């Protein structure tokens, strides 16, 4: 640890040979994860910088979306392998339920990661179905086979990324599930944020069709999030209490990509962003603003309706996901404050009531009132 810290400090000071070495390897971005016990945050906990570096590099030969989808599937396969392995040691009902949820997650991962590589798509779609409350050893075996098949078809770079971004702060196996869930959610948040950016750019070019298509993709991914929550909700209260004790000051409220989704969708009230987590240039228009401007001019009624429909669909799915997160939080920690300094479940309940596109919501309410 002392050597890692020394190397980390040398890099932070900009020691030339090391910086040049690190720019060619993931080392510089990995070191902060390994020495962040005292001063880490949410992003060093889950390795965000390494994932961002991977998207940037991978985009040279495949699109960022394909690269993110490949990583999401590799993360889900690793999660399943870990849970199936635990099931071979602990054949409890709870571990069966967790492994089954992880199995379903990987089996249905095409809904979360629709551009996954074709061989991987074949492996997951060909997997058998598993019953609720069946034989533990049988589930462990088919789960390990599926996870191995998927990882065998996954290229080296995403596999390595998944391997090096598991640095838990406790010895609890539950924390490994927690970290993998967060990393998959993060991949999805980034994807939704990029879709919003693409939709804004497309509308600015008067391409309503393209904007609608990318928003449809984003809505479908958010609608698929319940399969991931089904894994997370197996978190035992006592295990999470230990994880919380060791992760003070790290909260997903610091997530930049999550905040970006909300900042890109519509102007937010002052004080909306308690952590100032993701700053956008205030001059940048949000999707709601660009949409409203184009509705006034340039767009046909059919285009405006199509876009409004998909924006409402995205908003509904996003808020549904926030409500599910609130429900999981109540189950796992009750109503104690969060590690990010908020009131906890009450904060999340309120946050789930805020629309991504308030102007469209006002339209719906006015439409309903005039009928
Ligand atoms: C059982 C596990 C979890 C519990 C008990 C939990 C609890 C909480 C609490 C209490 C907050 C309020 C902020 C704070 O003070 O910390 C919060 C915020 C948040 N959590 Fe979780 N969380 C869990 C898992 C996750 C996972 C796996 C993700 C995925 C990335 C996640 C994403 C978020 C986000 C994005 C926020 C900010 C919400 C907003 O500002 O609207 N949480 N969580």
Low-pLDDT stretches are none
Structural domain count: 2
**Beta-strand residue percentage:** under 5%
What is the CATH-assigned architecture of the largest domain? Up-down Bundle
What would you call the structural class?
mainly alpha
CATH first level of the largest domain: which class? Mainly Alpha
| Count of β-strands | 0
- Largest beta sheet, briefly? none
On the 0 to 100 scale, the average pLDDT is 90
List the defining traits of the structure above.
Methane Monooxygenase Hydroxylase, Chain G, domain 1, 371 residues, mainly alpha, globular, 2 domains, 0% strand, binds protoporphyrin IX containing FE, single chain
Q: How would you portray this structure in words?
A:
This protein has 371 residues and is mainly α. It folds into two domains: 46-167, no CATH class; 171-237 and 256-262 and 277-371, Up-down Bundle (Methane Monooxygenase Hydroxylase, Chain G, domain 1), CATH 1.20.58.480. The protein is built from 20 helices and no strands. It starts with a helix and ends with a helix. The chain binds protoporphyrin IX containing FE.
Summarize this entry quickly.
The chain contains 20 helices and no strands.
Describe the secondary-structure layout.
Blueprint: H1 2-13, H2 16-24, H3 27-34, H4 42-46, H5 48-58, H6 64-89, H7 93-107, H8 109-112, H9 118-125, H10 136-153, H11 156-164, H12 173-204, H13 208-223, H14 226-232, H15 237-245, H16 256-265, H17 287-296, H18 301-333, H19 345-352, H20 358-370
Helix pairs in contact: 1-3, 5-6, 6-7, 6-10, 6-11, 6-12, 7-10, 7-14, 9-10, 12-13, 12-14, 12-16, 12-17, 13-18, 18-19
This protein binds protoporphyrin IX containing FE.
